[in-house]
Design a protein that fits this description.
Layout (H helix, E strand, L loop, with lengths): L1 H7 L4 E9 L2 E8 L3 E6 L13 H6 L2 E7 L16 H14 L5 E6 L1 H12 L4 E7 L10 H7 L2 H4 L4 H15 L9 H7 L1 H5 L1 H13 L17 E6 L9 H10 L3 E6 L6 H4 L1 H13 L35
Parallel strand pairs: 3-4, 3-5, 5-6, 6-7, 7-8
Antiparallel strand pairs: 1-2, 2-4
Helix pairs in contact: 3-4
Length: 321
């Protein structure tokens, strides 16, 4: 059934729900044909956030699949679900299995990158490479500041509801941007559409995220990620940037890491400079495929202008000279 569905969607975008468990579904969109690229939004994102990236990738000959994790975008928001990052990675794997997709390039923003890293070591057959957009090795579904904000969740409906949420999202997007001209009224409306559709369910899902415990930590498993990883970091001062300590954890743990700076961009690279995302996908596609064994192998990469680079030895943890 699914290959036929994907064939029919070759020249258009299809949006549908993929069940992953009882009472749980993820919203998925598929555009184009070719090598698969899977886009994963962060905590406050959705498929809308990739609207400038999807058509560029499809025009470049990729099949572009956007998967919105549980509780994010238009996906289901069950109150008592497991919102751990490990469970989210398993759901994304279930979607890719359902669609018969493997060997995909994962492009993940912010918290979505931690899901992508988990998927890469748990299901290496599904992942050819990871492009992380300002995403580090997060060990929890909610940051400390998000946890503090959620203490006031029961009062949000009484003090402005969705209108207050829109105001907070607007200020957050601006603070996280290098150039905030993209943060318009219509963009803020789209970023808050999922929450606005069912505010009660959204708040309950967010509260669940603050309480969930991860069944296993990510950092000890980074060395099991055998695919190339590109980390894109915006150079403009902005909120939400990956802490230097987290970048160092990726340097030490990943077998093949390249770090590129995106001049002038902030946290939302896909909004501010979508061309940089498409270029990163092209580089990962051209990179050698690393075997699951690969002990001691070193994969060279040609120097590029305009960005920092870090190539890590297989199984060594030491940057190359």
């Amino acid at each position: 059934m699914w290959p036929l569905v994907l064939l029919l969607l070759a020249d258009s975008t299809g949006v549908f729900h993929v069940p992953v468990a009882a009472g749980e579904f993820l919203q998925v969109s598929v555009t184009g044909t070719g090598a698969p690229v899977v886009l994963i939004p962060g905590l406050f994102g959705s498929a809308f956030g990739f609207r400038h990236v999807v058509p560029r990738l499809a025009a470049a000959g990729y099949q572009v699949i956007v998967v919105e994790p549980l509780g994010i975008g238009a996906s289901a928001r069950p109150e008592r679900a497991d919102y751990s990052l490990t469970a989210q990675a398993a759901r994304i794997a279930a979607v890719l299995d359902t669609l018969a997709v493997h060997d995909a390039i994962l492009v993940a923003h912010s918290l979505g990158a931690s899901m992508a890293f988990r998927l890469a070591y748990r299901r290496p057959d599904l992942v050819r490479a990871v492009v992380s957009l300002e995403g580090g090795p997060a060990e929890a579904a909610a940051t400390p500041s998000f946890r503090r904000a959620m203490r006031f969740a029961p009062w949000i409906k009484w003090f402005g509801g969705v209108r207050r949420i829109r105001g907070k999202v607007r200020s957050g997007l601006i603070a996280a941007s290098g150039d905030s001209h993209w943060v318009t009224d219509s963009v803020v409306d789209a970023y808050t559409a999922g929450a606005a559709s069912d505010l009660d369910a959204t708040l309950k899902a967010f509260l669940r995220m603050t309480a969930v415990s991860e069944p296993e930590r990510l950092v000890p498993h980074l060395r099991e990620v055998r695919c190339p990883v590109w980390l894109l970091l915006g150079t403009a001062p902005h909120d939400g940037r990956v802490p230097p300590g987290d970048v160092e954890l990726l340097r030490q743990g990943l077998s093949f890491l390249t770090i590129d700076s995106v001049p002038g961009s902030g946290h939302y690279i896909h909004e501010e400079q979508p061309g940089a995302v498409v270029a990163a996908v092209a580089r990962t596609r051209a990179a050698p495929v690393l075997g699951h064994e690969g002990e001691g192998r070193r994969v060279p990469i040609a120097p590029r202008r305009g960005g920092d680079q870090s190539l890590v030895m297989m199984n060594s943890g030491a940057p190359s000279n």
